[in-house]
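Worked example 2:
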Amino acid sequence: MQYELFSDADFQQETPFVGRAFCLLGSFHVASKALQQKLQALGAEIKQGVSRNVHYVVLGKDAPASSLEQLRQLVYNGYNPKVLSENDLESIFGGSYSSYAVPEQISKDLHLTFQHYLDSRLSYEGGMNPLYTKELYLAPDTRPELYQMLGNRGIYANAYIDDTTDVIVISDNSLQHLQEGQTDESLRYIEQQYNQSRAQAFRYVMTSEGELLAWLNKG
């Protein structure tokens, strides 16, 4: 695959890549430096590592495992750089811009998955009160008697998420939706609150109404 560098006139060309940051990972059929120069000719910035400030990640052969893990974590936390191949670059350099355009402002757009639930699942083992001093959010489709049951244990819960929320309680229906790769209104509310927050990582602890009820009934 051969690429010719743009002429001086091309450097003045307005493209959808002006102000966008690219990160190239791995090796390509041509030198990375030549690819970087072509991208810079389109107005792009070149970053040396994957971060939440990157608009595009170009994957070549033998991309470093550590960088791929950083990319996975970005997507997990709601940052979704557009992933390109060398063939995509060839299309871009050939003038195909529209299908590769992304907004200049990078924003979070988390979509909850069952993996989020598994990774942040509240543990009820150990005999101690896992909700001691914690602020709970109860999704609106959970059982209403949970408020009274939690109050009897001296545990505070409310019907909204804010900066003090530690634990999110979802309904068993929402848990099933996550397992099936689906979503619902309650899950979208959680996503929205996280996406609009200043948090850079999804760090809520999560549990289901079924697991919470089983623990409360043990006491």
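The first helix runs from residue 32 to 41. The radius of gyration is 23 Å.
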